[in-house]
TrEMBL record:
Cofactor field: Ca(2+)
Species per Swiss-Prot/TrEMBL record: Bacteroides cellulosilyticus CL02T12C19
Residue ranges occupied by any Glycosyl-hydrolase 97 catalytic domain in the UniProt entry: 289-463
Keyword Calcium: yes
Organismal lineage: Bacteria, Pseudomonadati, Bacteroidota, Bacteroidia, Bacteroidales
TM spans (from-to): none
Pfam families linked: GH97_C, GH97_N, Glyco_hydro_97
UniProt cross-references to PANTHER family, sorted A to Z: GLUCAN 1,4-ALPHA-GLUCOSIDASE SUSB (PTHR35803:SF1), GLUCAN 1,4-ALPHA-GLUCOSIDASE SUSB-RELATED (PTHR35803)
Protein name (record): Alpha-glucosidase
Residues of the Glycosyl-hydrolase 97 N-terminal domain: 27-271
GO molecular function list: carbohydrate binding
Length: 670
């Protein structure tokens, strides 16, 4: 009887569509909740639409590209056949927020062809927490393809609230905006939004040999991909007659923290391409860095030079004494005098007062790793000329981790996020891997999960980090509770948290302090409480996690015990509660220890946290780093208290945070 009913319904839907079967092909998520339908519309254009439950989430949206020289990538395609598969596996990564990740999806591969025999496979993968799709083109007879535009649209069915930074092909170091979806002019991805009771974020996965995708509002809540161009306006170029795009992704979750807890971006990347990964390990680090940003030290060699042999050894001693695995030095090599000018850094020529061989020897003796530094100022050609040599040179010294930087414009009209530089960034990842070297990239291309394929690509900046607090109006309190729901959905961030001298008292009293950045208003400060600085070590995930302050500000400070106990090599994580721009609570486990970080925006807040993530039948010593009673990020940012308690998995904690405050907790089994 039921069978008959279904046939009847199908029959009537054929009737409604003019007696013709709909040219529609559908696939749902494993739990059946998310449904994606591909269709050729009345004008034979390719479209997709997404519904969640019974509600339309993405209304019919265009697919395809345009190209030069008569290459057709969008029109008149016909479905040749459609294949369906299911995939369910749990894979393991050498490091990450979660070492084990379940990859469970239903795939629909729509194979299409046009009259000139151009072949396109549209591969859709639908997970319980969102979806991704990619294009795989083969153009017979073409020996090159010049892509002029991407037509992919995301027509969001209902207006709602969004959190994003503006689209910009050169920088992600911008402030987040909270605004109606319909009011966004353009945005970079991840673009996070809430509509119809659901949270979602549009981004991309596995960005390889392609420009980055940004989003442009084409009316109401309809968005279209805008690719970062080459100087001649071409968006993507290939010297062969075929190409594959990165995945276009939409994460979808009933709660905002569901976006953080999703493994979708990593699942859409290729498995590890490196033969061995035992040389890759997460590390905590300190470095000669903040002093330059505050203007009390300099990158360039002079009487204020930060990276001297003596100072370098002082940092190694501090790391060795405080359970910190690594030290990082900036301003150690020739070329800083031309930063912002000709930018011809030399990556194998240390300044005269930086005896790198002696420093490397000393670090080895103390069991501390060195993180090297390559600032390019944007001079890619100069860097690429020295690339292999400089990674080999570091490796020969025993230095197997490098922070890179691209603070400056690119030559010849290239922009930071176009295909040219995407290729460059990948070239660096592969060269570093050759020398068993891990990377921390500043001014990077945005993360799209390639750490799964290249686990030596560990962390990157790609948002306004700590440096902005040294010489600008700074990052507002909401910034750190915005990042986990936006930038960090893409992957780890080297924010460099943990400044203890919140008001820069030591720097402001220093006779050496000089203004070096035009944006410096002289009354800069950190816009948070001390407890929130500590919480950010947990919240702002980075497998290379820095305690960014000058070590003088940690020496003898009781609250620095948190960083001593902290372990950057976590096994499991869960975002427990939060709302973009308002607050967040995240817990991570590393071995037997758990670390909890909670933070709030300008509002004081109390959040109740059930400790049911702890192992049952174990008692833990909880060390709580909390805002002091009268703490307030504006008037009393350094008031904090340390409270110790014994707790078990059945306990419930009340986490109290001051305005602009936070809380960090270490749980150690007794
Ligand atoms: C910008 C980076 O984000 C910062 O960490 C670094 O100190 C400067 N560039 C200089 O390389
Ligand atoms: Ca930067």
């Amino acid at each position: 009887m039921k069978q008959h009913l279904i046939s009847l319904v199908l029959f009537f839907s054929f009737l409604l569509s003019g007696c013709m079967p709909l040219k529609q092909t559908e696939v749902t998520s494993p739990n059946g909740h998310i449904r994606l339908a591909f269709a050729l519309d009345g004008n034979n254009r390719m479209t997709y639409q997404v519904s969640v439950g019974d509600t339309v989430f993405i209304t019919p949206s265009l697919l395809g590209f345009t190209a030069k020289d008569g290459v057709n990538l969008a029109e008149g395609f016909k479905v040749v056949n459609t294949g369906f598969t299911t995939h369910d596996e749990t894979w393991t990564q050498p490091w990450g927020e979660n070492k084990n990740i379940r990859n469970h999806y239903n795939e629909m591969a729509v194979h299409l062809s046009d009259t000139t025999n151009t072949k396109l496979t549209l591969r859709f993968r639908i997970f319980d927490d969102g979806l991704g799709f990619r294009y795989e083109y083969e153009v017979p007879g073409a020996d090159s393809i010049l892509v002029t535009d991407e037509l992919t649209a995301f027509n969001i069915a209902q207006d709602g609230t969004s959190w994003s930074i503006p689209a910009n092909y050169d920088t992600y170091e911008l402030l987040y905006r909270t605004q109606p979806v319909s009011r966004i002019d353009n945005a970079n991805t991840p673009m996070t939004f809430k509509t119809g009771g659901l949270y979602a974020s549009i981004h991309e996965a596995a960005l390889t040999d392609f420009p980055e995708m940004t989003l442009k509002n084409t009316g109401n809540c309809n968005f279209k991909s805008e690719l970062a161009p080459w100087p001649d306006g071409i968006k993507a170029r290939f010297n062969v007659g075929s190409f594959k795009t990165p995945w276009r992704t939409i994460q979808i979750a009933p709660k905002a923290v569901g976006l953080i807890n999703s493994g979708l971006i990593l699942n859409l990347n290729e498995p590890c391409a490196l033969e061995t990964t035992d040389w890759i390990r997460p590390m905590k680090y300190v470095g000669i860095w903040w002093g330059m940003h505050l203007g009390v030290e300099s990158w360039v060699i002079n009487d204020r030079h930060g990276a001297t042999t003596e100072n370098a050894k002082r940092y190694i001693d501090f790391a060795a004494a405080n359970n910190i695995e690594a030290v990082m030095y900036e301003g150690w090599n020739e070329g800083w005098e031309n930063w912002g000018g000709s930018q011809t850094f030399d990556y194998t020529r240390p300044y005269a007062d930086f005896d790198i061989e002696e420093i490397a020897r000393y670090a080895r003796e103390k069991g501390v790793a060195i993180i090297g530094h390559h600032e390019t100022g944007g001079n890619i050609m100069n860097y690429e000329k020295q690339l292999d040599k400089s990674y080999k040179w570091y490796a020969d010294l025993g230095i197997h981790s490098v922070k890179t930087g691209y603070a400056g414009g690119l030559p010849d009209g290239h922009n930071h996020h176009g295909q040219y530089n995407v290729r460059h960034y990948r070239n660096v990842v592969e060269t570093a891997a050759k020398y068993h070297t891990t990377l921390d990239v500043h001014e990077p291309i945005k993360d799209t999960g390639i750490r799964r394929t290249y686990p030596n690509m560990m962390t990157r900046e790609g948002a306004r980090g700590m440096e902005w607090n040294a010489w600008s109006e700074g990052n507002p309190p909401e910034h750190h509770v915005m990042l986990p729901f936006t930038r960090l959905l893409a992957g780890p961030m080297d924010y460099t948290p943990g400044i203890f001298d919140i008001m820069y008292e030591r720097a402001k009293n220093s006779p050496y302090r000089k203004q070096w950045n035009m944006k410096d208003s002289k009354d800069c400060r950190i816009n948070s409480t001390l407890a929130k600085q500590i919480a950010n070590w947990v919240i702002l995930y980075s497998p290379l996690q820095m305690a960014a302050d000058m070590i003088e500000n940690y020496e003898g400070h009781p609250a620095f015990q948190f960083f001593r106990d902290f372990d950057a090599d976590c096994d499991w994580s869960e975002a427990l509660a939060g709302e973009p721009g308002e607050f967040v609570v995240i817990v991570r486990r590393a071995g037997e220890k758990y670390f909890l970080g909670a933070a709030t925006n300008e509002e004081a807040r109390e959040v109740t946290v059930a400790l049911d993530f702890l192992e049952k039948d174990k008692t833990y010593r909880a060390v709580i780093y909390a805002d002091g009673k009268d703490a307030d990020w504006v008037t009393n940012p350094t008031a904090y208290e340390i409270i110790e308690k014994q707790v078990t998995a059945t306990d419930i904690l009340s986490v109290n945070m001051a305005k602009g405050g936070g809380q960090a907790i270490t749980f150690m089994p007794l």
